[in-house]
Amino acid sequence: MNGRRDFLKKSTTIVAGSFIMPTIVPASVFGKNAPSNKITVACIGCGRQMVKPNIPQLLESPHGQVVAVCDVDTWRMDKAQKQVDGYYSAIKGTDYKGCKTYTDYRKLLLDKSIDAVMLSLPDHWHVPAAIDAARAGKHISLEKPISTCIKHGRKLVEVIKKYGIVTRNDSEFRTLTNFWKAVEIVRNGRIGKIRKIYVSVPPELNGDPLPPQQTMPVPAELDYDFWLGPAWEAPYTEKRVHAVKAYGRPGWMRVSDYCNGMISNWGAHLMGIMQWGNNSEYTGPVEIEGSGNFDKGLWNTMNRFDIHYRFADGVEVFFNIERAYVRFEGVNGWVEIGYPDKLSASSPEIINTPLGRDEKSFKVELNDKDDFLLAIKENRKSLEPLEMAHRTISMCQLGLIAIKIGSKLNWDSVSEDFIGDNAASTMLNIPIREKYFKF
């Protein structure tokens, strides 16, 4: 037998009738440090988020190995390759040159030596790239927010179910101690039945508005048309995309053609905690209404919003831009988590009392990358599979639609459609340019 790949060829299971998915080899076959115990990962989208938190965490994990990087910006792709090869060179004490490079992720997905992908693309590319990866049988860790509209998110979830892959919403918040502690308190009933939940995101993306910009020459290292991908054609200007040969917060995060803005960017983190604590991770509200204000110019996402949701059991959720926190209020008290490390409650006993015999632990000891990689090895769900992430980001997108419509909306979380409002229903889907991807 010739190592891991030969063994995997003989240890496969058929998924969805036509695709052959590799089965991870148990440690007993080759030993604890055998190549078979490393999940091979490709990193697609090599911007700020990938090269700062994501690649370093994947490199440091004992459960995976980064084997390829991909970006339509060759400067970013080359920098990521050097980052990976440099890390393994230092570990191995040799001049390691094993990290492959791709400018087209579709070619990368044809590489059968790759088990999983870490997707850190602009938001408008999240669903198309994830669907293509699922169709190729790759396990997926997907940056938040996972979609820019509810219909696209539902299509992604359907494809994931069809191909039976492991998925993870790449948000670290469930692994932060005070966040899982707060959820543990709430889910064990220490504050009684939940009545109200307050969620707020920081005004991190807000700032001076940016007027329309002059068209600029496309940098030689950037395949701009591929960067646009499913989005419609638009003239290139640096503030629409990302900084040339540099990192930092990119302009596309404030352009509604590519991103929902702060409501989804941080909302994906904090509304996810709200859903977790409320035990509503696979459902949604029945009523939504809100108000907000949009920037004008090239950067045109919301700079302010106040949204009110009501669930079928009467729980009310209030969502705005103020600071990063989640507060649960129950009939017997309250608990609040402020990012990054503040935890407070209506009485110290709510936090400090040890878990009782009948209480459930929500303790998380893995970071998000290790949770994803071990979920693949152990053939289990990750802590935050994309079905949960879809319901979380739907909360944000429902609020956005309610603000645009300007009236209270009624929502059916089973059919995922509005009741009696055709105008709102049309906003559930964003038409795409099909040059690079088709649903």
UniProtKB/TrEMBL annotation:
This protein's UniProt keywords: Oxidoreductase
Molecular function via GO: nucleotide binding; oxidoreductase activity
InterPro entries: Gfo/Idh/MocA-like_OxRdtase_N (IPR000683), Gfo/Idh/MocA_oxidrdct_glycsds (IPR050463), Gfo/Idh/MocA_OxRdtase_bact_C (IPR043906), NAD(P)-bd_dom_sf (IPR036291), TAT_signal (IPR006311)
Domain Gfo/Idh/MocA-like oxidoreductase bacterial type C-terminal, chain residue ranges per copy: 214-436
Coiled-coil ranges from the UniProt annotation: none
Domain Gfo/Idh/MocA-like oxidoreductase N-terminal stretches: 40-165
Protein name, as recorded: Oxidoreductase domain-containing protein
Species of the source: Proteiniphilum saccharofermentans
